[in-house]
Amino acid sequence: MIRKIAFAMGLGLLPAAVVAQDAAAPAQDAPAQAAPADPGTTYEAARNQLGILQYCQKQGFTGAEAVEAQGKLVGLLQGGDEAVGSAAEEKGAQGTVSVGGTEVSLADAVEERGSTVEATCQQIEAAVNEIAPTLPAG
Fold it and tell me: How far is CA 1 from the centre of its chain?
């Protein structure tokens, strides 16, 4: 699948805003797309990103707000396999990016991009926190 959604969209995992739009926008309001994202892969990537944010928080690189917002986002997604999602989240919590059978440690992935784990964690946190106010309450 499009190289595992461009390997979780260039390791920002999936852009949180795109996942949020997929989850929150009714189908008739969604912009036309060439091919809709696979709900199972989107769910798996979102759960892995939740785990990555938990990992980042344990390392002291991010705060609890992003973890909470990502958890809300995951709750909005439909069509995901709970067992696959749980496994992806656990791998993320251990610092592994895992989507659609492709796995790489966060440290190795960001090093290849010339970045650091801390900077990447902060980028993911910023993206998630940016869309947090648009998520439904609860």
Answer: 17
Contact by Cβ (8 Å): 120, 106: yes
Q: How far apart are CA 138 and CA 18, in angstroms?
A: 20
What distance lies between CA 83 and its chain's CA centroid?
A: 17
Measure the CA–CA gap between 109 and 94, rounded to whole angstroms: 14
For 72-108, what is each residue's pLDDT tens digit? Answer: 999 999 888 999 999 999 999 999 999 888 899 999 9
CB 38 within 8 A of CB 1: yes
Looking at residue 35, the DSSP 8-state letter turns out to be S
Q: Both tokens of residue 122?
A: 């902060």
- Start-to-end CA distance of the chain, whole Å, equals 33
Q: Which residue has the tokens 């949180």?
A: 16
| Integer angstrom CA distances of residue 60 from 28, 55, 56, 120 | 41, 9, 6, 13
Task: For residue 83, give the amino acid letter.
Answer: A
Q: pTM for this structure? A: 0.76
